[in-house]
């Protein structure tokens, strides 16, 4: 597998991106990575690093897309940026995936216009993998923020794409699909979710009905379908709640006397493991489903570990041939 890494996209680049690439090479001996960006800066950073130079390539780009750039303008005017040159190289062939921690909107528009969408897909979906209370089990949220206004037919596509991902990458035979709603009853929701519920019942996925936001991390479903507005709001509310719980625990422990502090020391490994599951380091990034090639969006402030996991995720998707499986699943839908 050959993965392109945008080394100048996010807040921690290029250092964290390059260090993450070296970690990914150590984890998979068959992986090759092309570092995209200012070649002189990248090579200077690598000068005192230990890595397998036979498996690292370079794609020079003279500029970078910033978070202040408007997505459509970045695609049109920053063709020499590390993001756009990387996407163009991916579209031209010879590469299996692209990872960037840069401007999410620009990455979405660039992937749509340069790499192109799978036939039958109306919009690409930014789909993060969420941890659950079931050990070792994750849930994919489709959509996590790319499309704030969706038609019911788009939500059906999200369900098909999410199912194809969970089947091919995580080897779940019949992924359970739930529609994120304000109640589990079939008649709940707005007009779009009610129509989507009807479409999903008729669709060739393992649809189990509506799920509420409180079930996002319960593991009751493998695929959560939502428009980007609802999905992103629910995800950020959960992140905020998690941060608040850890802050409250810290306050109670520090002000709770000796017994509380001793108890904390005994439970510290469990707390550390729990917190690790919820960080961007563990998640690695969200995947753009519906694009013809593998595109993974890492968090803007990704650490080397987060970049490594994003690269591994792109590699796993490419090996599993997710994009072609999504195309096949959607083609089957059109024939029905």
Write the layout of secondary structure elements.
Layout: E1 2-6, H1 15-27, E2 32-37, H2 39-46, E3 56-60, H3 71-77, H4 82-92, E4 97-100, H5 104-115, E5 125-127, E6 129-131, E7 138-142, H6 152-169, E8 176-180, H7 191-202, E9 206-211, E10 223-225, H8 228-254, H9 257-277, H10 280-283, E11 286-289, E12 294-297, H11 304-319, H12 322-335
Parallel strand pairs: 1-2, 1-4, 2-3, 4-12, 7-10, 8-9, 8-10
Antiparallel strand pairs: 5-11, 6-7, 11-12
Neighbour order of strands in the largest sheet? 3-2-1-4-12-11-5
Instruction: Please compute the radius of gyration using only Cα atoms.
Output: 21 Å
Query: Looking at the structure, what is the overall shape?
Result: globular
Structural class: alpha/beta
Distance from first to last alpha carbon: 34 Å
Report helical residue fraction: 40-55%
Summarize, please.
It is built from 12 helices and 12 strands.
Keyphrases for this structure?
single chain, 336 residues, alpha/beta, 7-stranded mixed β-sheet, 5-stranded mixed β-sheet, 12 helices, 12 strands, globular
